[in-house]
Design goal:
This protein is an alpha/beta fold. Helix content is 45%, strand content 15%. It has a 7-stranded mixed β-sheet, with helices on both faces. The radius of gyration is 18 Å and the shape is globular.
């Protein structure tokens, strides 16, 4: 049976808006529970999909960081156009990298990074994530075993040239983290096997924010928003947002 894939969401909750950003090969499902939790507590939340995400892997491999960053900017602008003058951002993994970039390019009330990398493994290792995404996509669309194998082979033949650009994006953001002054909450899973977990300490140590907090979640893996400490994380993010200097 074909499974319907997650879609971008916009949950209206109050005058304070939080932009929620998913990771590489992820989608809005990664932050859906967090979005609903914040909505129930008076926040409006929006989660876009980056180009090629939440769709076929054949589309994904022909997109890159410039496309995805444009989607982040468009979502931020969309919140502004709908009258939200005060916006915070919370991002998972690549979404955390984009949250930091937004922090030194746009006015933000606050920033939350969750398992955000400040270095990238080899492009070959990252491409394994694309192949896993293809497996998940094939299962969701009830592909036969032969169809799944054909999809994997096609992707291996095509490759994903923009992964090198992804590496450059992370380097660029790492070099500009010290331009961030907004309040920030850095969340990192101790059992994260996807990124270098020392990235969290680098972010915390390097930002110029006077109001900054770092917290480790000892029993969680990379997709911390869906792991066993997710409710603790949700409450911690809410507590952080409630401390910000909102005008309304």
């Amino acid at each position: 049976m074909k499974i319907s894939l997650p879609k971008p969401f916009f949950f209206e909750g109050g005058s304070r808006a939080v932009l929620l950003l998913h990771g590489f090969t992820g989608n809005s499902a990664d932050v859906h529970m967090l979005g609903r939790f914040l909505q129930k507590n008076g926040y409006t939340t929006m989660a876009p999909h980056y180009k090629g995400h939440g769709t076929s892997p054949e589309e994904l491999i022909h997109t890159g960081p410039a496309d995805w960053w444009a989607d982040v900017q468009n979502a931020y602008q969309s919140l502004q156009e709908q009258g939200y003058e005060e916006i915070a951002v919370a991002g998972l993994s690549l979404g955390g990298v984009f949250s930091l970039k937004l922090g030194y390019t746009a006015p933000l009330k606050g920033i939350v990074t969750m398992c955000a990398p400040m270095s990238m493994r080899t492009t070959e290792k990252m491409f394994e994530g694309v192949l896993k995404y293809a497996c998940d996509f094939g299962r969701a669309h009830a592909y036969t075993e032969d169809e799944q194998k054909a999809l994997q082979q096609h992707l291996k033949e095509q490759g994903m040239p923009s992964l090198q650009e992804l590496r450059q994006l992370i380097i660029q953001v790492r070099e500009q983290v010290d331009e961030i002054y907004a309040p920030i909450f850095v969340a990192q899973a101790s059992k994260d096997e996807v990124i270098d977990i020392h990235s969290a300490q680098y972010i915390y140590d390097t930002v110029e924010s006077n109001d900054k907090t770092i917290k480790w979640y000892e029993n969680s893996g990379h997709v911390i928003t869906l792991d066993q400490e997710r409710k603790e994380l949700q409450q911690d993010i809410l507590d952080f947002l409630n401390t910000l200097d909102w005008s309304k």
